[in-house]
Amino acid sequence: MSQFNVPTKAEVSPTNQAIFDNLEKGLGFVPNLYAYYAKGETALEDYLNLQNRKSSISKKEREVINLVVSEYNGCHYCTSAHTVVAGMNGFTPEQILNIRAGSAAFDSKLNALAEFTLATVQNRGKVDPQSKEAFFAAGYTEANLIDIVMNIGDKIMSNFIHNLADFPIDFPLAQPLEATAA
Known about the structure:
The protein is mainly alpha-helical. The chain has two domains: 10-51, no CATH class; 59-181, AhpD-like (Up-down Bundle). The protein has helices at residues 14-27, 32-37, 43-51, 59-72, 76-88, 93-100, 108-122, 129-137, 142-165, 177-181. The longest helix is centred in the C-terminal third of the chain and has 24 residues, at 142-165.
């Protein structure tokens, strides 16, 4: 059980209350992760701006990154949330499990992205030349690389917030990969 509490709308600043209203209109609820960010005066707005920034990578590609990074960092909250979002972006349950394991055997370009993302987080950006070659050979550019690292940073922040605070997960729980391999 978490020692950290997720704030209610009444417990956050008027600025964050307005953001809660917008989230409720758009999503139907305020996810606990977003509510937790609202404990900081500007953190929620800053995070949403980062998450919603323009990018050279598609929504599907973002979900590949989100799933790989969240699984690697052991963030059950983000893995669960992005399992739902990945499904909304057209991935099957089997594909989502494959991505979480660090590959996308069903699509060569997404596979290069998944493998590059995993190599990047495992090696803290010090990726071997062969991994970079495979990434660029799949059709990615240096602009994509920058946007991918921005996305990795976004996800690491959320993973660490949840791993530290351990507040309740308000999405259907993603099954652990170990349980699916049995």
